[in-house]
Amino acid sequence: MKTILITGASSGIGWATAKKLDQKGHQLILCGRRKAQLDTLAHQVQCPTHLLTFDVGERPAVEQAIASLPAAFSKVDVVINNAGNAHGLEVSHEASIADWEAMINSNVMGVLYVTKALLPQMIERKSGHIINVGSIAGKEAYPRGNVYCASKAAVERFTEGLRLDCNPYGIRVGAIHPGLVETDFSNVRFKGDNERAATVYAKLKALTAEDVADAIHYMLSAPAHVTVADLTLLPTDQASAFVINRQP
Q1: % the chain with pLDDT above 70
Q2: According to the CATH classification, is domain 3-233 in 3.40.50.1970?
Q3: For 53-91, what is the HEC assignment?
């Protein structure tokens, strides 16, 4: 049994990943900002769970939360850095600085803070597995994506550098880069404009959160001598960050 910490577990990919890993006999540390949703998730899984409520973009909160782990959950074998958001879809000269800061804080600094808080114990044990959830947007920019694309590109480069640093210690490090996944991602991006959010997934069959969870499970279940270092997951209707075959 492994102890697996999942950030952004209160919805979407994080939620689906927790449900998937529950079937595999692990114990889970479920992290998110919304305690009510984490409580609901904890009641839906059968495995042992521990809940941590904090914002990954706030370093003191991250450090305090990790330090508070009880002994039974303190040896973390796997970190899934999933928390992150997109805010706005404006051209650069019209974009909100507050939106840019929110994306950098959650998508970049959040990954760094959580990783830094848990990496020393993995280094000491010479074992562990870190999976960062990036995006196809980190591999190629799309119009009006500016800082969101930049934040996910940072995740990809950090993952590569981290894998180099961790190589002498037997720690596996990889990233998964999904394309269009139909969750509340676009509702958040468009600040609750559900009609606009629906157009993102219109006339195509997008990935589901469960599709991504299945791929994350595949990354985790590879033999110990195998690292799935970089996995890009697209719906068949999507060929790149901005080439999409929408049906008539």
Answers
A1: 100
A2: no
A3: ECCCCCHHHHHHHHHCCCHHHCCCCEEEECCCCCCCCCC
